[in-house]
Amino acid sequence: MRAQADRRVSLAQGAAVLAFFLLWEAASRSGLADARLLPPPSIVLPKVVELLADETFRRHLVITIQEMLLAGLIAAPLGIGIGLALAESPYLGRAFKPFFHFVAAVPKSVFLPVFILLFGIGFGQKVAFGVFQALFVLVIATSAAVAAVPEELLRLARANGATRRQIWVEIHWNAMLPLILEGLRLGMIFNIAGVIFAEMYVSRAGLGQRFSTWGESFRMPELFAGVLIAAGLSIIVNETLRALERRAGAWRTS
Amino acid sequence: MSLDLAEPRQATAPMTPEQPAIEIQGITHRYKTGRGEVLALKDINLSIAPGRFVGLVGPSGCGKSSLLMMMAGLVRPSEGKIDVRGAPITGPAPDRLGVVFQEASLLPWRTALENVAFPLKLRGVPRAEREARAEQLLHLVGLKGFENRHPHELSGGMKQRVAIARGFCQDPPVLLMDEPFAALDEQTRMTLGDELLRIWDQHRKTVVFVTHGLTEAVYLCDEVVVLSGRPGEVLARIEIDLPRPRTWEMMASEHFGRLREQIWSLIRRQS
Fold it and tell me: Closest to A160 (Cβ–Cβ): which among B103, B119, B151?
């Protein structure tokens, strides 16, 4: 029963994807959309394979992945650390949490020129901007995770003589992990957006740099193929973290 | 620590028969709110003999739960002291006191078995040993076969059974219960009350049972301590001289009704 329902869902999803590409193909071929601006998938999809086989393109792709991963590796401990500090110290929290909410609300792209002045236009600037993009959502998610630790469980642990360390390991860690992973996932989405945007703005290498070059020179098949690759990359990162989140938070739902 | 549940145990340490299990001396408690200081408890003196099942009742906000939390070492009283088995309570003392809260307070990410074993885990008891003990306790509370369920897969009554099993886990001589059945429906509450008496009868721990339910208090307890409204003071200690084991038929008896009425009239005058 269940397996059958699952199969029907997969079938529907497959059909939707197929329909999307067919409509795209039809629009492009029928002249509904200008084929020069919107090349059909029959041209774009082979281009994806071609690009992935191309060593120059792969070098650009790897640079973007490196920037994104390094930014993630810096942003994660930094954001989680700041979030914990803000949540655990009433003084720090009251004093500084509002700033994080304020800055989180500001579109980060307006700071891009400042980042260029500070860090140049190379690898470091992309990483810095990725960190900047990811940091705020992580800080906010982490401090919310601390607040979400159930008071009754802390009391239970204390009544049973738990040490401070045990309370952190047994209660805080488990209660917070799914929420922090959620923050990390959102942070990574912001991070990837930031890195690619910074590359598109000014840079010598990376996916974003390719996008703006292709866009300016009307190389639409390459541009759309690149977009599909970038989308694939973000989806892989997102789904990986979502799987971790589901495993860590299996107790929350179902 | 003995793992043998079948064998009732009275005490872990040598003690004289006269020594009370719990000795509350001159407990007064104040706390600050936005509108000034509140006197919550005023000069509480109580002595509870080992093996007694003692109820703590009183109008809402009389501080009966606070008093229990003080016994558990979770709240420090403004004045006075509490001795449990001859030694003062200065903080949590899980070897002497088991606590069962109103909310089952189960760790949602742990199985029923792991939840019961949790206090032993905190004390560093090896996994095999603590889980063997937890398994026995789960059987004792009627949850055989539910060892590997997570709390979200259990009903409210089952969760509270797990919490009770956890309270027994360290085999403490004293069990503190803070309205453990308050969140349950009437039927489950009655069933669990009977189960609790059955387990208690095997182990004869000292139990302090905070409750709003007067029927429940009379049905379960040897003695009911009635606290007054704020500030909480001991109004009366009512001996429940119904024979044990208690049966449901007793609830219909005239004597049961009189005891219940006696407690109710004391509380009613307070509110």
Answer: B119
Query: Which residues 132-151 on chain A approach chain B with CB closer than 8 angstroms?
Result: 150
Polymer length of chain A? 254
What pTM, to 2 d.p., does this model score? 0.80
B-chain residues near A156 (CB < 8 A): 99, 101, 105
Report residue A24 as tokens. 């795209």
Contact list in A for residue B112 (CB cut-off 8 A) is none
Residues of chain A with pLDDT under 50: 254
- Positive or negative, the CA dihedral A109, A113, A114, A120 is positive
- B74, B103, B150 ranked by CB distance to A158: nearest: B74
Q: What span, in angstroms and rounded, lies between the C-alpha atoms of A15 and A33?
A: 23
Q: Which run of H or of E encompasses A4?
A: helix A2-30
pLDDT digits (tens, 9 = 90+) for A17-65: 999 999 999 999 898 888 888 999 999 999 999 999 999 999 999 999 9
Nearest to A153 among B92, B94, B107 (CB): B107
Q: Smallest CA–CA separation between B49 and chain A, in Å?
A: 23
Q: Above 0.90 for ipTM, yes or no?
A: no
**Mutate which of B70, B114, B122, B154 to disrupt the A interface (most A C-beta within 10 Å)?**
B122
Q: What is the 3-state secondary structure (H, E, C) of B118-136?
A: HHHHHCCCCHHHHHHHHHH
Going by their DSSP bridges, the two strands B36-48 and B22-33 should be labelled as antiparallel
Q: The domain A40-252: what is its CATH number?
A: 1.10.3720.10
**Angle formed by the axes of helices A112-119 and A123-147, to 10°?**
120
